[in-house]
Amino acid sequence: MKSELVYLCLLWALSILGAPVNKQRQKVLLISFDGFRWDYDRDVDTPNLDKMAKDGVKALYVTPPYLTITSPTHFTLLTGRYIENHGVIHNMWFNTTTTEKKPYYQTQFVNEWWDNGTLPIWITAQRQGLKAGSLHFPGTASSYQGQVAMVREVEPLLYNYKNETAWRENTDKVMGWFRDQDLDFVTLYFGEPDGTGHRYGPDSPERREMVKQVDRTVGYIRQSAKQHGLTNSLNIIITADHGMTSVYRNGQVEEITLSKIPGFSFRDLSFHLVDFGPSGMLLPKPGKLEKVYNALKGSHPHLHVYKKEEMPERLHFAKNDRILPIILWSDPGYVINGVLQFHKGEHGFDNQEMDMKPFFRAVGPAFQKNLKVGPFETVNIYPLMCHILGIQPEVNDGHLNATKHMLVTSTTTQGEFISD
Ligand SMILES: [Zn+2]
Question: For residue 262, how many other CB atoms are within 10 A of its CB?
């Protein structure tokens, strides 16, 4: 009788203190809308994103790792590591000996490109008894130390990334995985507004229309979570891999054309990755490094040229064998070798540039409500997700301290009461 009373008092005290009494395990859905820049909600009416911010957390912006391109930055979301540390240094697999290159989609299937010593969160979660899934998220097609996400779907080669009906079907599919297969963690990828931002530019009406489509989809995602009975267990994090900036049209500015730079010759290179965007990597032939470097360094006021070992530390893009000896990037608006430039928008610039910053929203039982927070680096999303899921993170470059102020003061993880 007495112990029962103590128990009731304890329950009462817990309820007063606002501690969660239910022991339901927390789930996490990580969503990426490719190329959604931090300020895309400022010139478009976005009622669903606004509602999500009111019901949860909105960051002013987040800082992606350098190089600000799709596969490397997504692998940072999955691992909490800077690109030099996780090794997925480019969208394109390449072999400097054979000079073979594979484009973005084909590189998804090159296992050794991805399975390179760093485990993505799906595998870590599964090794610790959770169930993970992924739909279209970069890195999904590869296996890691022989393991894959237990439920996964990779898009076909010719895939229409902007079909809103397919977005809704994919949303319902993922919610079904959570409800019917009791998955704990899923990553979900949408290929827009990146495609539209490239094609029409970030300041175009087409981009604003696509942001409206994203916003409707955010509303649909939250409605679908509710209909699947997931409101009390599912935490939804929505972010992106990088932003987008307008590029100058041909003839508007003095272009950066490597072949026209005095003293520079492609014949001095044994391999290069210069892909009509703002970044490039060069492997000079033996004995030619100084010649190539001296020709390029200072050759154009908007071209940055670095030897790998002299790269600014803050970019965390040097200490990896896959990174080539000379690294180039241009200032916003400029592209390298853009003679065939047909994109009106680009990314891949310095991650300090505001136009490269993605957005961030989170909602769910683990998150505070109506909270606006300052910017943080996307390496910190990984330890946040591990904390909510109650799993031990791998070695990573993020810190829970950077994001834990977004969480309710105490969170039930794995049925345990943890306060921090
Ligand atoms: Zn992208």
Answer: 6
Residue carrying the six token digits 């084909």? 106
Please confirm whether the linkage preceding 205 is cis (ω < 30° from 0). no
C-alpha 225/C-alpha 176 separation (Å) is: 9
Q: What is the Å distance from ligand 1's center to 419 Cα?
A: 36
Name the amino acid, one letter, at 163.
Answer: N
Q: How far is the CA of 33 from the centre of ligand 1 (A)?
A: 8
Distance, CA of 327 to CA of 2 (rounded, Å)? 72
pLDDT tops 70 at residue 10: no
| Domain spanning 27-247+352-411: CATH 3.40.720.10 | yes
Neighbours of ion ligand 1 (CB under 5 A): 34-35, 70, 194, 241
Q: Output the CA torsion sign for 134, 412, 73, 146.
A: negative
Start-end of H helices in 251-336:
289-296
Residue for token pair 């590029």:
247
Domain ranges of the chain: 27-247+352-411, 258-342
Inform me whether the pLDDT recorded for 230 exceeds 70: yes
The phi, psi pair for 280, rounded to 5°, reads -160, 160
CA 181 to ligand 1 centroid distance, Å: 29
The beta-carbon contacts of 121-127 under 8 Å, at least 24 apart in sequence, are 121/78, 121/79, 121/185, 121/382, 121/385, 121/386, 122/78, 122/148, 122/149, 122/185, 122/187, 123/147, 123/149, 124/386, 124/391, 124/392, 124/393, 124/394, 125/184, 125/185, 125/389, 125/391, 126/150
Topology, domain 258-342 = Gyrase A; domain 2 (3.30.1360)
Tell me which of 274 and 377 has the higher pLDDT: 377
Query: Is the predicted pLDDT of residue 3 greater than 80, yes or no?
Result: no
CA of 34 to the centre of ligand 1 (A): 5
- Residue 339: what pLDDT? 59
Give residue 248's pLDDT band: very low, low, confident or very high (50, 70, 90): confident
- Within 10 Å of residue 223's Cβ, how many Cβ atoms? 14
- Residues marked as catalytic: 70
Q: Which residue has the tokens 């290929």?
A: 191
Binned at pLDDT 50, 70 and 90, residue 8 comes out as very low
